[in-house]
Design goal:
- The protein is built from two helices and twelve strands.
- It is of the alpha+beta class.
- The chain folds into two domains: 30 residues; 144 residues, Umud Fragment, subunit A.
- Strands 1, 2, 3, 4, 9, 10, 11 and 12 form an eight-stranded antiparallel sheet that branches. Strands 7-6-5-8 form a four-stranded antiparallel sheet, with no helix packed on it.
């Protein structure tokens, strides 16, 4: 007499095996997720840090209360150049708000303000400011920048606390947080690149 298996219930569980392909897929997803998190961190750290313009020293381009994004990576590779709008803490003081100003002098330059005009390395810079500079501050006498110093001024030079004042003076390279590269304006102005 032969035994037949019935088609009834079976409590025998087939042992599941994990294939190499399944392991590879799981590892691929984990690596992809870690890469996405790293990329997001680099983007936010490098180009997504916000600062707020305080005062009207950079008007009409940037106005009081306007938010800007800071490029913190650029100056790890390149040096700030004349015309850049930088964000810095005066004298590296972490307890003060950030300042937003335009670089008018780079290391090695000589700066002097005479008769309401900025002189850079002895040459008059008539096109930098639309107004005559009322207060030359410490730049009434020629200022020569050291190898790690920058001379900065606000675009609205007669309403700006900048390198002409003794409490800010020449901005050292290590005090610079980064370059202002994008502004977020309110109302109809929308968003826009700086420079």
């Amino acid at each position: 007499m032969s035994r037949r298996r019935s088609g009834g219930l079976s409590f025998y569980e087939k042992k599941k095996t994990i294939s190499h392909n399944q392991i590879y897929q799981v590892i691929s997803w984990l690596v992809l997720a870690a890469g996405a998190v790293l990329l997001a961190w680099v983007l936010v750290y490098g180009w997504g840090i916000k600062s707020v313009v305080i005062g009207d020293s950079m008007s009409p381009g940037l106005v009081n209360g306007q938010e800007i994004l800071i490029d913190r990576i650029r100056y790890n590779i390149l040096e700030p150049k004349r015309g850049d709008i930088i964000v810095f803490k005066p004298n590296g003081n972490e307890n003060v708000h950030t300042y937003v100003k335009r670089v008018v002098g780079v290391p090695g330059d000589s700066i002097q303000i005479m008769n309401g005009m900025l002189f850079l390395n002895g040459q008059a810079q008539a096109d930098l400011f639309s107004d005559s500079i009322a207060d030359p501050g410490i730049a009434a006498n020629e200022v020569t920048l050291d190898t790690d110093e920058y001379f900065v001024m606000g675009d609205n030079c007669n309403s700006s606390e900048d390198s002409r004042t003794a409490n800010i003076g020449n901005v050292r390279r290590e005090s610079i947080i980064g370059r202002a590269w994008f502004h977020m304006a309110g109302g109809d102005e929308g968003l826009g690149r700086i420079n």
